[in-house]
Amino acid sequence: VAEFHRRRAVIRAADLLQNAYRLVAEGRYGHALKVLESNFPGHSQAPMMALLGWRAAHALRDIDRTELWRNRSLMSGEDFKSACLITEAELALADRDYSHALASLQQQTATGRLQIVTLRLQLRAAHGLGHWAEVARLTRQLEKYRGMTAEQARPIRTRALLENLNDLQGDSQALKGFWEKLDTDERCFPALASSMATGLIKSGQHDEAQQVIEQALELNWDSKLIELYAECRGADATGRLSRAEKWLRLHPQDDVLLLVLGRLCVEQQLW
Asked: Distance between CA 22 and CA 17 in Å, rounded?
């Protein structure tokens, strides 16, 4: 009889937890909290119920009950520490409290466990805080561990690298140091090459800017990037004109290239 009652209690506890999960998944947070609050005391799966209650109360923007269920979750013991830290980070990100989210994730990272979910949450927090160097690093790490495809990672990493380049404008040495650390294919991204060339031109390093533009255009033709080519007023004016004329054979209908060629001719007085 005792074994029968024990099995019955286990089944009932599992059914209650399943019902609470279903209600939260359906977005019926108020109903879920009623089920959780009436069955939490003494429940064999109290830590799991506490985490569910925390999420449901947060979704309802009920500050008092959110804090109540959060405290119950934090009392669940060491086994649920990671679950609590990740939940706290996710809810903080939902509130756009990126600093709080990052603090929770740093505690989680300190455990030494490399988890894809932690990296993804760190990426969102770094993006929200504008920590672009960290965004670029985390994107590369996620791609390495198959937490993100190359197609997903490329625009995010490109945006992060572009923001870094923009922050370094005016410091030619820092720009060069940053540029040298990039992969060869990244140096050929038109947006990155354009930002780098602009910075070099502003600092008077026209020959270096010309080289950056030419390398990028060899792999990725871009009309906006070719427009900067006319701004590279280095010593090799004849070489720039000759190269641009070769490009014209491949892109005869590119109006920006024609304009650049006209400007190069004006520069050399080839009326």
From this structure: 9
Q: Mention every residue, 6+ apart, whose C-beta is less than 8 A from residue 127.
A: 135, 156
Maximal CA-CA distance, the chain:
106
Least Cα distance to 187 among 227, 163, 218, 233 occurs for 218
Q: What are phi and psi of 241, to 5 degrees?
A: -65, -45
- Name the pLDDT band for 111 (thresholds 50, 70, 90): confident
Question: CA 216, CA 185: separation in Å to the nearest integer?
Answer: 9
**Does the predicted model carry a pTM greater than 0.70?**
yes
pLDDT in tens, 50-69: 999 999 999 999 999 999 99
262: Cβ–Cβ under 8 A, 6 or more apart, which residues?
none
Which one, of 209, 218, 140, lies nearest residue 176 by Cα?
209
> How many of the other CB atoms lie within 10 Å of CB of 213?
27
Cα–Cα distance for residue pair 225/97, rounded to 1 Å: 38
Instruction: Compute the half-sphere exposure of residue 245: CA atoms within 13 Å on the CB side of its CA.
Output: 8
* C-alpha span between 114 and 52 (Å, rounded): 24
